[in-house]
Amino acid sequence: MKLAAKLSLVSVIAVIAVLAASNYFAAQIAISKIKRDHEAYAEKMASQMESSILDAWQSGGVEAMRSALRTEGKPPVARWVWFEESVTATTRPSTTADFSTIVTRQAMTSFVSTVGDGGHLLHTYYPVDLGVPRAGGLEFTRSLDDYDRETMDKLIESLIVVGFLSVVSILVVWFAGVRLVANPLNKLTAATKRIGEGDYRFRVELSGKDELTQLGRSINEMSARLDAQKLAIERATRDKANEIIEFCGLTRVRRDAASTLSGGQLKLLELARVLMADPKIILLDEPAAGVNPSLMRDLVDTIVALNQRGHTFLIIEHNMDVVMSICDPIMVMAQGRLIYRGDAAGAREDKAVLDAYLGDVH
């Protein structure tokens, strides 16, 4: 559900961004077209009036030119203006570059100005060479109120469209996101969690050909392989345990509770548990302690057989019969010091060993 909400938010943002971008570029294209049309109109009118303006200038100066631009009973199509070589920031701060273009390049240019009531005017300047140092030309002005109203209408329409599309997007993405994305992801998440917990028999039920379904199939295949590996490991472990139980002579009591086993059987059970880890070296601390003499032989035989299979034993033992029968070499310690290292025969005759453990008895 959280994912569906996020997808809905993203879709709304995308709709707003697309509409905002389309409106911006549409406005730029529209104003560019208006400028081109106005410049074409200005150029046409200026070419028609240029000869009469030059005649008026030669006959009566600026006032004669301005009179020539007036039409009986109608506002003038254009007005005469002088272009200054430089325009200060206090006069026309936004048109310095435009006037510079007219003066230096003698080229027609246009710009948009803002009037007091918030409206906009489009100014197009057409330079006319009077043969004097001062540069001047015709200014054609057009109100952009129609364009402003059209822009506002489009903005309102866009807001209505944004609202409608946002609602539709939220509904579509919400339901589609829950059905096509959120639900499959929840199933995939549950599957990976179960696999992480060791349940490899869990299967993801998805239909379709999309990427999430393919991912679900991959998870099912992986889970099946892991399940097969787990079963193989369990079988191998069970077979190994049965082999070790038989080797240690515990087959008869294999289903008995450990608390019911004798001391010797417990020693063999401890040894069997160690063997499950395939150790290279086995440390035994007094393995003969508390073992019934009838089971001692079984314990000793098991240790000898394991030694012959390649297992090394380090045995700490006070039962000399056990030590002498299975240990080679033998190391004897007294008061924290090593006093003998060698075979069993040598230990029986070593003076230090005899003094330490038999004292005056020998």
Low-confidence stretches: 85-97
Radius of gyration: 52 Å
> What's the count of strands?
8
Q: Summarize the biggest pleated sheet.
A: 4 strands, antiparallel
CATH-defined architecture of the domain at 2-157: 2-Layer Sandwich
Written description of the protein model:
The chain is of the alpha+beta class and 362 residues long. Among the domains are: 2-157, Beta-Lactamase (2-Layer Sandwich); 169-232, no CATH class. The protein is built from 9 helices and 8 strands. The protein has helices spanning 2-69, 96-105, 145-196, 211-247, 263-275, 293-308, 320-326, 344-349, 351-357, and strands at residues 79-83, 109-114, 120-128, 135-143, 281-285, 312-316, 330-334, 337-342. The strands form 3 sheets. The protein has a 4-stranded antiparallel beta sheet with strand order 1-4-3-2. A two-stranded parallel ribbon has the order 5-6. Helix 1 (2-69) runs antiparallel to helix 3 (145-196), helix 3 runs parallel beside helix 4 (211-247) and helix 5 runs parallel beside helix 6. The longest helix is centred in the N-terminal third of the chain and has 68 residues, at 2-69.
